[in-house]
Recover the amino acids of this structure.
């Protein structure tokens, strides 16, 4: 086979999937367990994208959960977020549980990269902050606890 | 010879290179047909194999992809590496400790991968330090050096670290025989024959890889060069090539080339184990360091050990046997079946192939021609399977494709020669550029070679690449060996001087539980700051401990005051990221030290002793985000006794102080 031809085919293949970052190497997506990606047109801006479809918030605040959330956030989140509405590296947390659905918050905190690629509001946010929110390897429980901590911060009793 | 190498303009037909004197004359006449596409790995695609290549005098291990030849990483092992802070951070300094103290450099020659049932298993790579004899274990979950053990009674740890088929032992044969460390070494050098001994170390490898010198075998003073373990039927045996059986101590290039034949020493290590159990070893007083890395504290510790068990081969008659081998044998390789042992005499015009079955019979029949320092010498013909006639000049090393073929490198005639192990017929030969040393076929020294590629590691590259002053890059060359004829498909520069290398299928390495980051919750470093709320500065006498965190794109704290001249400042930096491939760096002005390169979730310490009063910036050295340039801070150093309280902050601007 002609070398240039091969090169051309190689380049074509590369460009055809070059837009989606996670597809750069076929096996790369397989290896990544926390991040999933799908067709951008099917993206649901209310729910975000990730494993959480419904989150049961219960009636009032779960104080134990919120205090667990405070601990995890102290290690993994608070170097970039303030509890007020003031922006540090990322936006302040004040009011986030009123602006976003619980599903969106949990999906974003566990699966940030694919959502930053698709969510129009996150893309607008990125233009302000200029730092992509890192994946901090939160467990499902961590994410739920942090959500409860955010609710507490927003005055839920 | 030089002038022939330099005739780069002379056009040479490919055929001539195959048939002629095997001296390549042109840099571009050997790649043809579809060679380029065989080595081409498209952007974003993965290589088929990892190739772990020794860095020779660089002291490090480099990781390449096959067949692309792309360099992925340089793992610091025996030499300090300012890029990664290896040997500079407080945590890594103990890894380079020895009985001589901190040793910042060594010469890594051979790599050997761990095996299970004679097949590479992707857990660890071992490497040897020649100069101050040591063996290192590199963990392939972290691609980090996890352990280093020093070897007493040794000089020039060359025939090392070769491994048994279930990683029971890695061995290390001394290149320079020397008076034992437990003896008085202050003796006239020309008493070599009486006072110098060889010691071969059997280093036991535990379940988690932990190394321990189980025993040493004391032999007559010779130079041990290389080695390989038996496998399959010959499991339980080890084979070491020896030169300088003349026992010369000066001008060895002449004086160690006197004899027609030197030896391959066959060691029955199972028998040696029995003698150890039976209490036949002698405990000797020595000093050697054993350094281990703790993944939880991200810190190494170094322990000095003081005793080693030595078996005397001249007393215990049935653990060592000498096989005569022409002439100054270098490589000593065992084929995948375990039956054939191939010696390569650097100065020999043939390749002798020995038979394990014949070795057993010869020992049973006591087919000895004498003894050497108390060790039985077997009759050459009684052990010989046959000789490969006129293979080329200067045979060095042999690897196998698992299909009954052997491939031997020829240093003097710069070529690789393929031959049939049973019939001993030469099947094919290809030129190398130039002066090839070791070669590697993925799994090529195991029971299960992946006989698709062969990589030749060359000593000289003149006229092969753009020149770079008096020193040129070393090189490796990849050959496709899937067909009857070997085909050169790529050459690529390497670091240091590559010696031995190992390779394994990519999936075996990357699917073995690779670490992507250190979990903060598992970080047991005593000075870790898990979260910015734990960031602080603590004074203990003249020591100032900074518990610092880093996160895209700032440090906490980033303003530090109240440090005095005469203080020792320890920056303990914890990287709070929990995301793959986001290290942060740390450097401070005027540090007589390296940088830190802190992996996600890791804590690493830089010791900084300010040498003057002033304000010193520090910053992140690893581009981490769009605001990376803003990732910086200041530390103020005041005169001793100044009235400046210890103070640290982040995000707070106080009114200007005094
Ligand atoms: Cu940084």
């Amino acid at each position: 086979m002609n070398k240039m031809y091969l090169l051309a085919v190689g380049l074509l293949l590369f460009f055809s999937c070059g837009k989606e970052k996670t597809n750069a190497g076929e096996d790369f997506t397989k290896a990544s367990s926390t991040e999933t990606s799908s067709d951008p047109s099917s993206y649901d801006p209310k729910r975000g994208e990730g494993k959480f479809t419904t989150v049961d918030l219960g009636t009032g605040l779960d104080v134990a959960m919120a205090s667990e959330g405070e601990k995890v956030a102290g290690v993994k989140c608070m170097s970039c977020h303030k509890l007020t509405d003031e922006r540090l590296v990322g936006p302040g947390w004040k009011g986030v549980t009123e602006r976003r659905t619980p599903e969106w918050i949990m999906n974003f905190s566990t699966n940030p990269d694919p959502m930053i690629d698709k969510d129009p509001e996150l893309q607008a946010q990125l233009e302000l902050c200029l730092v992509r929110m890192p994946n901090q390897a939160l467990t499902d429980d961590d994410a739920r606890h942090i959500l409860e901590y955010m609710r507490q911060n927003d005055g839920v009793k | 010879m030089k002038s022939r190498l330099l005739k780069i303009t002379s056009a040479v037909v490919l055929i001539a290179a195959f048939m002629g004197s095997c001296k390549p004359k042109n840099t571009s006449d050997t790649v043809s047909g579809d060679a380029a596409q065989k080595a081409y790995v498209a952007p974003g695609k993965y290589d088929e194999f990892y190739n772990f290549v020794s860095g020779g005098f660089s002291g490090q291990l480099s990781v390449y992809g096959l067949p692309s030849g792309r360099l992925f990483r340089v793992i610091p092992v025996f030499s300090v590496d300012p890029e990664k802070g290896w040997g500079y951070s407080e945590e890594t300094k103990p890894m380079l400790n020895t009985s001589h103290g901190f040793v910042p450099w060594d010469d890594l020659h051979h790599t050997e991968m761990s095996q299970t049932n004679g097949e590479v298993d992707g857990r660890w790579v071992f490497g040897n330090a020649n100069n101050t004899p040591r063996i290192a274990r590199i963990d392939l979950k972290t691609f980090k050096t996890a352990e280093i053990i020093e070897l007493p009674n040794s000089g020039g740890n060359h025939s090392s670290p070769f491994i048994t088929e279930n990683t029971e032992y890695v061995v290390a044969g001394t290149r320079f025989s020397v008076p034992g460390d437990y003896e008085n070494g202050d003796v006239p050098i020309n008493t070599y024959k009486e006072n110098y001994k060889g010691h071969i170390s059997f280093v036991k490898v535990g379940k988690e890889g932990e190394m321990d010198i189980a025993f040493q075998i004391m032999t007559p003073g010779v130079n041990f060069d290389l080695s390989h373990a038996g496998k399959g039927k010959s499991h339980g045996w080890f084979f070491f090539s020896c030169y300088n059986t003349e026992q010369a101590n000066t001008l060895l290039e002449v004086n160690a080339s006197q004899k027609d034949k030197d030896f391959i020493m066959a060691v029955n290590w199972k028998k040696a184990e029995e003698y150890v159990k039976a209490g036949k070893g002698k405990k000797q007083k020595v000093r050697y360091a054993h350094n281990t890395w703790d993944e939880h504290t991200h810190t190494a510790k170094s322990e000095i050990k003081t005793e080693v068990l030595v078996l005397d081969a001249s007393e215990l008659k049935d653990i060592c046997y000498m096989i005569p081998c022409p002439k100054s044998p270098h490589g000593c390789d065992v084929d995948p079946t375990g039956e054939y042992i191939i010696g390569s005499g650097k100065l020999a015009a043939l390749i002798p192939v020995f038979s394990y079955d014949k070795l057993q019979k010869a020992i049973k029949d006591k087919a000895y021609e004498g003894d050497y320092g108390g060790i039985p010498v077997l009759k050459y013909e009684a052990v010989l399977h046959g000789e490969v006639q006129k293979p080329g000049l200067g045979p060095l090393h042999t690897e196998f494709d698992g299909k009954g073929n052997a491939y031997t490198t020829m240093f003097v005639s710069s070529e690789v020669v393929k031959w049939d192990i049973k019939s001993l017929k030469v099947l094919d030969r290809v030129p190398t550029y130039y002066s090839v040393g070791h070669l590697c076929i993925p799994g090529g020294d195991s029971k299960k070679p992946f006989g698709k590629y062969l990589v030749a590691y060359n000593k000289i590259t003149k006229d092969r690449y753009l020149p770079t002053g008096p020193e040129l890059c070393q090189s490796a060359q990849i050959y496709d060996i899937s067909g009857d004829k070997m085909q050169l498909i790529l050459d690529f520069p390497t670091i240091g001087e590559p010696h031995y290398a190992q390779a394994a299928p990519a999936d075996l390495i990357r699917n073995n539980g690779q670490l992507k980051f250190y979990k903060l919750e598992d970080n047991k470093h005593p000075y870790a700051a898990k979260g910015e709320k734990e960031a602080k500065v603590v004074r203990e006498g003249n020591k100032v401990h900074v518990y610092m965190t880093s996160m895209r794109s700032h440090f906490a704290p980033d303003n530090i005051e109240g440090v005095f001249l005469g203080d020792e400042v320890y920056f303990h930096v914890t990287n709070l990221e929990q995301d793959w491939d986001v290290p942060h760096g740390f450097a401070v002005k005027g540090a007589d030290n390296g940088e830190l390169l802190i992996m996600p979730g890791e804590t690493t310490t830089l010791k900084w002793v300010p040498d003057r009063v002033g304000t010193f910036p520090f910053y992140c050295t690893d581009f981490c985000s769009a605001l990376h340039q803003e990732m910086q801070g200041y530390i103020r150093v005041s005169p001793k006794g100044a009235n400046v309280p210890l103070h640290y902050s982040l995000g707070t601007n106080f009114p200007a102080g005094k």
Notes: Residues B 550, 584, 620, 622, 624, 628, 631 surround copper (II) ion (CB under 6 Å). Chain A has a mean pLDDT of 80. Chain A touches chain B through 28 residues (CB under 8 Å).
